Amino acid sequence: MPGPSPTIVFDLDGTLVDTADDLIASINHALADEGMRAVDPAWLRPFAGHGGKAMIERVFSAERRLLKPETTDRLVKLFLDHYADTIPGVSRPYDGALSALDRFAGIGARLAICTNKPQAFADKLIGALGLAGRFATICGADCFTFRKPDPRHLTETILRAGGDPAHALMVGDSRTDVDTARNAGIPVVAVSFGYSDVPVKDLGPSVVIDHLDELTVELAQRLMRAARG
């Protein structure tokens, strides 16, 4: 690829790795302590990328149950402790993810992760999956004093990877990812198979793909060139 080496930045949950089953299992672990029934994973899956607190709040709202702040704090801690203890669980890279990473590494691209997952969990998951050596940097929710959709989370991730935001591409699955990239002036590819409660095409990404095999060097080159005008 001519010009500076590009930086390809991936969201983690719902984009690069399918973590929903483990996240929901940890939610159900916390709910059981409250004497509540397990939730249907298919129902909660679109919200798996929103974080434990948001998922717990959604379950209580659906059950029309009052959720007190002290209960929230206790259940979130149970969720986090259980999730930390079970990483990586059944979480695995999406079909085509490793090939996509190989394609971009093969042309000298910098690879990075920008996620609202807590830093320790992101590092542990990527390490447990044997992927740590593939990324120039992993920047989680507490890596900076700001997080997605603040565009600085993305731009600072690119800089930490040794890249240039003018030669970068974001790959994500949610409104948060699309808004972050848009606010940063960086093109964004949205995957249709991740964790979004609305069709990602409605969020206004640069392109929607249905499989990571569609994330080609040629597509990235075209989108980055168009973004630079």
Strand order of the largest sheet: 5-4-1-6-7-8
CATH topology of the largest domain: Rossmann fold
Shape type: elongated
What's the rounded overall pLDDT mean?
96
Number of helices: 9
The count of strands amounts to 8
Characterise this structure.
It is a single chain. This protein is an alpha/beta fold. It folds into two domains: 7-19 and 92-227, HAD superfamily/HAD-like (Rossmann fold, 3-Layer(aba) Sandwich), CATH 3.40.50.1000; 20-86. It has helices spanning 20-33, 41-44, 52-62, 69-86, 97-106, 119-128, 151-160, 175-184, 217-227, and strands at residues 7-10, 17-18, 92-93, 110-114, 137-139, 168-172, 188-191, 207-209. A six-stranded parallel sheet has the order 5-4-1-6-7-8. Strands 2-3 form a two-stranded antiparallel ribbon. Helix 8 links the parallel strand 6 (168-172) and strand 7. The longest helix is centred in the middle third of the chain and has 18 residues, at 69-86. The radius of gyration is 18 Å and the shape is elongated. It starts with 6 loop residues before the first strand and ends with a helix.
